[in-house]
Amino acid sequence: MNYYKGECELLLRKYFLCVEEKRALEDTVRDMRRELSALTDELAIVRRGYDDQLSQMTEHVAELNGKLAGIERERTEQKTPATPQRSGVGISLFPLSTLASG
Questions:
Q1: What is the DSSP letter of 93?
Q2: What is the phi-psi region of residue 88: left when phi exceeds 0, alpha when psi lies from -120 to 50, beta otherwise?
Q3: Cα(54)–Cα(66) distance, rounded to whole angstroms?
Q4: What pLDDT shows up at residue 100?
């Protein structure tokens, strides 16, 4: 009977060790879930911040593009003469060599 008593005590000790290990692992899992939740919240905040920045930068680039188009339009208007020329006036139907030899 001593053998069975010793065996039961050994199994009981192993059981209590397993219960303690289970509690420790449950605590670890709970802490990891809290950390995961905090990191997920932080990621959402950072993502919103980046989305806001990207939106602002897109608006700014669109404004700069509009200003650049206006500047280019002004330059084009300054380069064109006040009296419009007819297109095609400078084009010759005959090559210069034909006119010079004839």
A1: S
A2: left
A3: 18
A4: 54
- Phi first, then psi: what are they for 80, rounded to 5°? -75, 140
In angstroms, what CA-CA distances link 71 with 57, 63, 67, 68, 78?
21, 12, 6, 5, 11
Alpha helices in the chain, H assignment, sequence order: 2-79, 96-101
Question: How many CA atoms does the CB half-sphere of 24 hold within 13 Å?
Answer: 6
Residues 27-51: pLDDT tens digits?
999 999 999 999 999 999 999 999 9
Amino acid at 40: T
pTM for this predicted structure: 0.53
User: How far is 25 from 44, CA to CA, in rounded Å?
Assistant: 28
